[in-house]
Amino acid sequence: MSIDAILQKALDGERLTVEDAVALYESDEVEKMGEAADVIMKRWHPEPVTTFVIGRNVNYTNVCDTYCRFCAFYRAPGSNEGYVLEDEEIFKKIQETVDVGGTEILMQGGTNPNLPFTYYTDLLKKIKERFDITMHSFSPAEIWKMVEVSGLSLEEVLHELKNAGLDSLPGGGAEILDDRTRKKISRLKGSWTEWIECMKTAKKVGLHSTATMVIGFGETFEERAMHLKRVRDAQDEADCFLAFISWTFQPDNTNMKAEKTTPREYLKNVAISRLFLDNIANFQSSWVTMGPEVGKKSLHYGCNDFGSTMMEENVVSAAGTTHKVNTNLTLRLIREAGKIPAQRNTKYEILHTFHDEETAEKDFIMQN
């Protein structure tokens, strides 16, 4: 089937197959894919609005026994460079977020074998006693570590976390949902089925999540296509994902050598994902890895959301990629893309639309 025929199939509302996705990955007709993805995006979101959330990434620990080859952030248990943030330090970071109108805390860390399960539930309770903020925290790898240290079932762990104050799960750790690639890049992280099981179980106990994808590990086009199929199947079954975010592997300072994926390949992946994932409403741009200009361009390749202003981000930064964006710059970039910026919450509900040249009441500088 020709690329034009595959794109027309998507535009006609037919589901793309794995073979269709592979054919798109093999093609260099990226602009055509972008145009089709933009049409599909506008069916979900007819208004020319691009949303963003004011949030902060709090990396509460860098101690990790998963040893992913592509990660420059983690330190092994026992390392004198390992840390666990004091509660007061976490509260301070959350207060700073609240002070600038932030609504979301993306709390993630390593799979730290030294932390008991009560560490997480007690911390969540203390946060919720002090702050009215959405805890969008703990990726599936961290959740499975909690299962291991607690002896509880996956469902019990997620239920306890929700009761303690967890609101939703970020989609980190999906990388490529294929076990050949997973074994190559992160032998101890768990299978793709465990990642999916965590997200479906989270929905069962009343938590939403997001789905992610990282390209550039040397995965095949078939593996990329199967990743999208597995996300789409899970969404069909459980309606667990509020959004989809893809980005590219950043090889600097890691134990994996690889060519950096080009902006064009990233935009192609964004477009194919939008065309294939016909059951997920929101697609986030990844300006953190790709930079603001490419992030802006992705708003015409299927993305309707600019992600988080992310006051703090240590994992991608550790790999030598640091693109800092503050709220007013976010507004400007969205406007330069021909869109109207709007602040949202974690559930993609719009809190404030910024018309004309209105700026954020409070500007802030993102910190390392």
Q: List low-confidence stretches.
A: 312-325, 362-368
List the helices and strands in order. Answer: HHHEEHEHEHHEHHEHEHEHHEHHEE
CATH architecture: Alpha-Beta Barrel
Radius of gyration: 20 Å
- Side-by-side strand order of the widest sheet: 9-1-10-11
Please work out how many helical segments DSSP would assign.
15
CATH superfamily, by name, is Aldolase class I
* Shape type: globular
**CATH class value:** Alpha Beta
Report mean pLDDT, rounded to a whole number. Answer: 88
Question: How many individual β-strands?
Answer: 11
Instruction: Give the structural class.
Output: alpha/beta
The total domain count is 1
Biggest sheet record:
4 strands, mixed
Note the gap between the termini: 48 Å
Helix content: 40-55%
- What share of the residues does DSSP label as strand, in percent? 5-15%
CATH topology grouping = TIM Barrel
Binding site for (3R)-3-methyl-D-ornithine: 139, 286, 308
Catalytic activity: dehypoxanthine futalosine + S-adenosyl-L-methionine = cyclic dehypoxanthinylfutalosinate + 5'-deoxyadenosine + L-methionine + H(+)
EC number: 1.21.98.1
InterPro entries: Aldolase_TIM, CofH/MnqC-like_C, Cyclic_DHFL_synthase_mqnC, Elp3/MiaA/NifB-like_rSAM, F420, FO_synthase_su2, rSAM, rSAM_sf
Protein described:
The structure is a single chain. The protein is an alpha/beta fold. It has one domain (3-353): Aldolase class I (TIM Barrel), CATH 3.20.20. It has 15 helices and eleven strands. Strands 9-1-10-11 form a four-stranded mixed sheet. Helix 3 packs across helix 11 (263-276), helix 5 (117-130) packs parallel to helix 7 (154-164) and helix 6 (140-150) crosses helix 9. Residues 312-325 and 362-368 have low confidence and may be disordered.
